[in-house]
Design a protein that fits this description.
The chain has about 250 residues and is an alpha/beta fold. It has helices at about 15-25, 70-80, 100-105, 105-115, 130-145, 215-220, 235-245, and strands spanning about 1-5, 30-35, 55, 60-65, 85-95, 120-125, 155-160, 170-175, 180, 185-190, 195-200, 205, 220-225. It contains seven helices and 13 strands. The strands form three sheets. Strands 3-4-2-1-5-6-7-13-8 form a nine-stranded mixed beta sheet, with helices on both faces. The protein has a two-stranded antiparallel ribbon with strand order 9-12. The termini are far apart. The chain binds manganese (II) ion. Manganese (II) ion binds near residues 8, 39, 92, 93 and 106.
């Protein structure tokens, strides 16, 4: 089995190193990741510039001057022959819970894998310390997928509490919760007196109730949410049909 590992924090991140090491024990691993941090890149593609690729001498990781989606797209369609069997993205430095997934480059890299027909997992550590715990669960899930594949029309969004492995209570299947809207834009001045703006931090949790990814993490469990690529609001199809007929 050949696994494509990517991320959005960049090819030098601690998380992608931990992930590639853990998965190398059970499969052939090829790392193709952005040359720098692209957190928050969502599903963007680079269309106006060519993509340059460099293989790093010390570990063989392939750095792409592009987004997470560029990396998976390029790897699957061109760089890796034969194509990989599975895409694993992460380990993200920080949570991808609730509506974080809209902005997440980590989740987008997995989604691109799924879009190209491959099973895919996104793994995030809810913190910045215990990458070994997240790597353990990534390996466990990949091993399980090798012997018991899941239906292909989903990706797994995995969030791991930032705890030593022995303090994690297990795994829970969850739905996405949601946050309050992000906090206000921060306005400052540059040295020439012109305004500059910073996107504010994510909002506090709004729906962190029973069954959500937030609740699982809060209780010390690994959260596993199945995500689908088709975001059609099926429950609104009939109502919208009636609405346009009345126009
Ligand atoms: Mn990130």
């Amino acid at each position: 089995m050949k696994i494509l590992v990517s991320n959005d924090d960049g090819v030098h991140a601690e998380g992608i190193l931990a992930l590639s090491e853990a998965l190398s024990a059970i499969a052939e691993v090829v790392v193709v990741a952005p040359d720098r941090n692209h957190s928050g890149a969502s599903h963007s593609l680079t269309l106006e510039n060519p993509l340059r690729v460099e293989t790093m001498a010390h570990n063989g990781f392939i750095a792409v001057k592009g987004t997470p989606t560029d990396c998976v797209h390029l790897a699957v369609n061109e760089l890796l022959k034969p194509a990989p069997d599975l895409v694993v993205s992460g380990i993200n430095h920080g949570a991808n819970l609730g509506d974080d997934v809209i902005y997440s480059g980590t989740v987008a890299a997995a989604t691109e894998g799924r879009h190209l027909g491959l099973p895919a997992i996104a793994v995030s550590l809810v913190g910045g310390q215990h990458f070994a715990s997240a790597a353990h669960y990534a390996r466990l899930l990949v091993q399980a997928l090798m012997t018991q594949p899941l239906p292909a029309d989903q990706i797994l969004n995995v969030n791991v509490p930032d705890l030593p492995l022995e303090q994690i209570k297990g795994m829970r299947v969850t739905r996405l919760g949601c946050r309050h809207p992000a906090e206000a834009v921060i306005v400052e001045q540059d040295p020439r007196g012109r305004p500059i703006y910073w996107i504010g931090p994510p909002g506090a949790t709004q729906d962190a109730g029973e069954g959500t990814d937030f609740a699982a993490i809060e209780a010390g469990y690994v959260s596993i949410t199945p995500l689908q690529v088709d975001i059609t609001a099926y429950r609104h199809l009939a109502g919208l049909q009636t609405w346009i007929e009345g126009l």
